[in-house]
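Issue 218. Parser rejects a valid record. Input:
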Amino acid sequence: MRLPYGCIDPSSKGGSGCDIEPVTERSRTVWHDLLGTHYLALADMITADKGESLNVSATRIWTAKECLKKAEMMVDAPLILMSRKDNSQMVCLRVGKTVICTFLVRVKGFEMPLVFAILVDEEKEIDRGSCLIVEENPIFT
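Output the parser choked on:
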């Protein structure tokens, strides 16, 4: 069930999870050590698609993997980048029917940008409308 302000309903069918991490500057070698070859290549795809730094894209992958862990799913599951036709700063990844949406956000009073990720079991639980509400939430600058 979709709730106001882009929330996820923990009582929904299937697993759910979320994670938030600060975007930390790391070398490509360190990101490779943390993510591995496959996930680093996916981060490179996101970097090219969004025009953002590797640090942001790799943090998106890291938070997605944390969501999988919290939902008690296979952490090394193959993540597939879902295409987006809009200018949104949201990046969605898919594992089977599971969707993980990541957002680059800035929180008032917190210096570093953050990546927020949410996982739901059905793609229908996340739609552009609810994600826009998350992006426009007044706690974000």
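Fixed in the parser; the record now loads. The chain has three helices and five strands.
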